[in-house]
Amino acid sequence: MEADSRLVLPLAAIFTAFFVAPLVVLLLLSLHGDIAMQGWTLHNYVKFFTDPFSYSILIDTLLLGVKATLVCLLFGYPIAWLCARAGARWQSVLVFLVILPILTSVVVRTFSWIVILGRQGLLNQVVMGLGLSNEPLRLLYTEVGVVMVLAQVQMPLMVLPILTVLSKLDPNLADASRVLGAGEWRTFFRVTLPLSLPGIIAGCILTYAASITAFVTQTLIGGARLIYMPLNIYQQAVGANNWPFAAALSIIFMITVMIVVGVLGAIGRRSEIHGRA
Amino acid sequence: MTASRSHRLRLEAITHRFGASTAVRDINLDIAGGELVALLGPSGCGKSTLLRIISGFIRQTEGRVLFDDSVVDALSPAERGVGIVFQNYALFPHMSVGENVAYGLQAHKWPRERIGKRVAEMLDLVHMGEFASRKPRELSGGQQQRVALARCLAIDPKVLLLDEPFGALDKNLRLDMQIEVKRLQRQSGITTILVTHDQEEALSMADRIAVMSRGHIEQVSTPTGIYDTPQTLFVNEFVGTTNVLRGEFIEGPAVRLEHGPILPVGPDKAFQQGRAVVVSIRPEQLRFRPAPSDGAFAAVITTVLPLGAQVVYDVALTGGPSLKIAEPRDAEGGLRPVGATVYLAPASPAACNVFPAS
Question: Does the beta carbon of A190 lie under 8 angstroms from any beta carbon of chain B?
Answer without folding.
Answer: yes
